[in-house]
Amino acid sequence: MLSYYYVEWHMRELLAPILFYEDDWEAVAARKESVVYPAKKSEKAKNKANKKPTSDNFPVHSFQTLLDDLATIVKNTISTTIGSKSFVFEKITQPTAIQERAIDLLGISIICTQ
């Protein structure tokens, strides 16, 4: 269970630019008055919360809605018969722009090679 939260924490940090999540920690640290008082949101985080698009003009997601969006990327197995020959191949669905941005931020590839 702990490893799940550890992976989620790292994913939230990497995906912060497109999530309702603070991603300008330098500005927050500069404005923090005391260790006791809660930190105030940066202007960047306030703009994401108020206007809803990111600085890249993508819609801002919660972590769960982004995972739901990424879950629509699937690998389809396609079989067809042409003439007397049967062919089977796999195709990964084309990611949307926000999905591509998330994949880039995570530093992963959806194409698996063996």
What does this structure look like?
The chain has helices at 2-14, 25-31, 43-51, 63-70, 97-106, and strands at residues 75-82, 85-92. By secondary structure, it is α+β, with helices and mostly antiparallel strands. The protein has one domain. It has a two-stranded antiparallel ribbon. It is elongated and about 70 Å long. 7% of the residues are buried.
Give the arrangement of secondary structure elements.
Layout: H1 2-14, H2 25-31, H3 43-51, H4 63-70, E1 75-82, E2 85-92, H5 97-106
Antiparallel strand pairs: 1-2
What is the 3D form? elongated
- Bin the helical content: 40-55%
Proportion of residues in β-strands? 5-15%
| Strand segment tally | 2
Strand order of the largest sheet: 1-2
Average per-residue pLDDT, rounded, comes to 81
For the terminal residues, how far apart are their CA atoms?
29 Å
Tally of separate helices? 5
Largest sheet: 2 strands, antiparallel
Task: Summarize it.
The protein is α+β, with helices and mostly antiparallel strands and 114 residues long. It is 41% helix and 14% strand. The chain contains five helices and two strands, in the order H-H-H-H-E-E-H.
What tags apply to this protein structure?
114 residues, alpha+beta, two-stranded antiparallel sheet, 5 helices
